[in-house]
Amino acid sequence: MIKLSIFDHDMTIVDSSYAIMNATNKVAEEIGKPFVTYETVLRFAAVPMRDFIQGIWGECRQSWLDLYREKVEPIEYEQIRPFPEVPRVLTKLREMGIFLAVASNRRDPRAAMDKSKTSQYFDMIVGPIDGLPHKPNPAMLDYLMRRFGVSKSETIYVGDSDIDIETGRAAGVRPVGVTRGNFTRAQLEKLGAWRVVGSLDDLLPLIAEPETQEAKGAKEEARM
Fold it and tell me: What does the mean pLDDT of the chain come to?
């Protein structure tokens, strides 16, 4: 039975792709770097900001990070939007008694989530600002499982990238891939996803599935 569902943030519960692209291009304009494309943003969206900048421009300077965080990040927050089904699905999961958490490589995910009004659905939100190493290190997931007092078999981790699948596997939980980032169903399955979904609507039957199988087993045992 699933008791804890942990989510990635960007491109899993919110569409931040255009927000990140527009914000990054404001930095590009300031420092004289090439503008980034939507496809490039999707390719690097799952990594920490320093690695993101390194990936798109081949180098990362502290002054560029400071510019992004101090002047551009608030503009990015304004453009982040939750995917349409997110409020409905998260409300339903809470009604089912599932603990909900976010583990993100975004430096301070709560700041962005407060702005997009998604933080209200979650029992706990963690990121590098909490002193935990970036994914795919499983420390964020391990920390959340300890805080909620749940086992690995009672936990799923939902994300859109290779980093998310690797993180879930490293933590020993069931990783669920979402096909709205840079990875296809086939790619996420090959990476080792337990299940792959097109939207969070598909999570509801998945979370009920293990409990249903357990119930069937109990009924079979009772008949013997």
Answer: 92
